[in-house]
């Protein structure tokens, strides 16, 4: 009976759009020692589509909302981890780090170099370390964030805006 109840609950959750939630710090973000040049080599070896960096602030309500409603979804985590290496950078952090070119810097300086003025900012980098897509603010929901990942993974950013890509997907 207990197994039947558990299966029924999973079926109801699946059919009503409830996804499994997991801790984003463990299941969405990759662990890093702050050497993005080295992480770039790892991404190439693992045949990733690129690297995603989330520039964030501890007291940012939109960063918090993303972590609690989108980045904690197992479907989002599994998709992003299979296609990208994903890291968080504190936009005002003093931690030392190495950028994609091998230059020593700090998280704050790196955020400034990437023109981070509000958070969250999601920047996708290709396997050469060049930024290819920037998304500022919180995504509407996990579906929009998955579309964003597809947009970059498929290379659609090369030929159309994300807005046009989303409209195309609704047709």
Describe this structure in words.
The chain is an alpha+beta fold. The protein has a single domain (20-170), classed as Glutaredoxin, CATH 3.40.30.10. The protein contains eight helices and six strands. The protein has helices at 2-15, 24-27, 36-45, 61-69, 74-83, 107-113, 142-153, 162-170; strands at residues 50-56, 84-90, 96-98, 104-106, 121-125, 131-136. A four-stranded mixed β-sheet has the order 2-1-5-6, sandwiched between helices. A two-stranded antiparallel sheet has the order 3-4. Helix 5 (74-83) runs parallel beside helix 7 (142-153). The protein is globular. 30% of the residues are buried. The model is unreliable at 1-16 (pLDDT under 50).
Kindly summarize this structure in a few lines:
The chain is an alpha+beta fold and 171 residues long. The protein is built from eight helices and six strands; from the N terminus they run αααβααβββαββαα.
Structure characteristics:
171 residues; alpha+beta; Glutaredoxin; 4-stranded mixed β-sheet; two-stranded antiparallel sheet; 6 strands; globular
């Amino acid at each position: 009976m207990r197994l039947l109840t558990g299966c029924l609950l999973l079926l109801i959750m699946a059919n009503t759009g409830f996804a499994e939630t997991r801790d984003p710090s463990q299941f969405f973000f990759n662990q890093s020692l702050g050497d993005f040049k080295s992480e770039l080599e790892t991404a190439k070896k693992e045949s990733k589509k690129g690297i995603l960096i989330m520039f964030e602030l501890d007291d940012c309500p939109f960063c918090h909302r993303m972590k609690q409603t989108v980045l904690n979804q197992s479907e989002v985590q599994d998709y992003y981890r299979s296609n990208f290496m994903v890291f968080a950078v504190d936009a005002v952090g003093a931690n030392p780090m190495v950028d994609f070119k091998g230059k020593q810097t700090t998280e704050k300086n790196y955020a400034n170099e990437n023109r981070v003025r509000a958070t969250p900012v999601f920047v996708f980098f290709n396997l050469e370390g060049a930024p290819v897509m920037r998304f500022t603010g919180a995504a509407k929901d996990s579906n929009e964030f998955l579309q964003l990942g597809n947009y970059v993974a498929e290379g659609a950013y090369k030929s159309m805006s994300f807005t046009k890509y989303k409209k195309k997907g609704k047709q």
